[in-house]
Amino acid sequence: MQAGKPILYSYFRSSCSWRVRIALALKGIDYDIVPINLVKDGGQQYSKEFETLNPMKQVPTLKIDGITITQSLAIIEYLEETRPTAPRLLPLDPKERASVRMISDLIASGIQPLQNLSILKKVGQETQLAWAQAVISSGFKALESVLQSTAGKYCLGNEISMADLCLVPQVANAERYKVDLSPYPTITRIYKTLLTVEAFQVSHPSRQPDTPPELRA
Amino acid sequence: MQAGKPILYSYFRSSCSWRVRIALALKGIDYDIVPINLVKDGGQQYSKEFETLNPMKQVPTLKIDGITITQSLAIIEYLEETRPTAPRLLPLDPKERASVRMISDLIASGIQPLQNLSILKKVGQETQLAWAQAVISSGFKALESVLQSTAGKYCLGNEISMADLCLVPQVANAERYKVDLSPYPTITRIYKTLLTVEAFQVSHPSRQPDTPPELRA
């Protein structure tokens, strides 16, 4: 590993890791990946070594510029503030920034945490699929309504923003949990459009160093 | 209600509403409160009228400067960007800003959503207290570890920041759910210090227009 190159601790299937991988790809930041397998060995995030790096025992975790940052949106905001060159991940207008953060937080606080791996484990194997479907559907109903007034080609107008970095991995989770997406035409349209963008493709769970062969694109 | 005055849709006991009430108090912003009772009438947040305002059917929701913002951290970031005068809620240094956002998101995405009212309802009455205690304790273990390297008088050094606005309401929730706080001396110390600050006192759940008489300070 080259000294000074950012290191992303990531799991191919982690939707929060994917958010950060998209940001790094959009900004053209070269980085190394250290895969943390969230299921193997009872979960590699629970190792003492990793806990020292991130006491929450979660990915993503980014080492960059001499510091370690956890929490995907905090990482993305840091990348934006220190590498503001195009493409911007947040618009310049404060009201538009509020919209981007509102959509991002709706997903990052309002949907994802309720269907992540550790919660589904707590819920129990029998009911976890129904649980995941219920929380995602409920969140998507709200998100669809919000996007109908903010969206252009993307979540906010016609520029890719942090909100899109949250949307795509969340829709991928919805597909994985077999959520019926037909009631959410705006979400689905933006998702499909974004999957054609290179930064979303190279960062895709099917194309990571730790993607198992049977799931590779 | 005076035209142009911000309107906060709030519930006295909502920890996310409290975050925003602290921000408004610190910034000295005069506002009106419209109470949304999350339990009465099956939950006033589920009314058609409120759903139009916030499709997530959650408080806080803030009407300000001609727009409606939901999601507490998006609201606080907007207040900071449009009213940056002292006290700042985020430091100027990007690395310090990353720390503040990391701590804020640890609470706002990593703890609070897992113990909010609608999730506890889903979990069921018999196990909800144990569930809330488990998710808060697990999050506080990580938070205590993070704060041991960031804290001064407050969460980050000696200036109040957005992280403190998240910490105090979360500790109040922990107390409500009878979480043993003895393993978290840094969290507890900062909490007690902040409770002596006027902006945290006037915004306290025990002093809101919708606080029931028996819970009033």
TrEMBL record, chains A, B:
EC number: 2.5.1.18, 5.2.1.2
Pfam family, one: GST_C_3
Catalytic activity: 4-maleylacetoacetate = 4-fumarylacetoacetate; RX + glutathione = an S-substituted glutathione + a halide anion + H(+)
UniProt-annotated location(s): Cytoplasm
Keyword Cytoplasm: yes
Predominant location category: cytoplasm
GO molecular function, one term: maleylacetoacetate isomerase activity
Location of the GST N-terminal domain: 4-87
Keywords, sorted A to Z: Cytoplasm, Isomerase, Phenylalanine catabolism, Transferase, Tyrosine catabolism
Limits of the GST C-terminal domain: 93-213
InterPro entries reported in the protein's UniProt record: Glutathione-S-Trfase_C-like, Glutathione-S-Trfase_C_sf, Glutathione_S-Trfase, Glutathione_S-Trfase_N, GST_C, GST_Zeta, GST_Zeta_C, GST_Zeta_N
Gene Ontology biological process terms, A to Z: L-phenylalanine catabolic process; L-tyrosine catabolic process
Cofactor(s), by name: glutathione
Pathway: Amino-acid degradation; L-phenylalanine degradation; acetoacetate and fumarate from L-phenylalanine: step 5/6
Keyword tRNA-binding: no
Highest taxon above the source species: Eukaryota
GO cellular component: cytoplasm
PANTHER family to which the protein is assigned, alphabetical: MALEYLACETOACETATE ISOMERASE
Family: Belongs to the GST superfamily. Zeta family.
The protein's name: Maleylacetoacetate isomerase
Organism listed in the record: Monodelphis domestica (Gray short-tailed opossum)
Organism lineage string: Eukaryota, Metazoa, Chordata, Craniata, Vertebrata
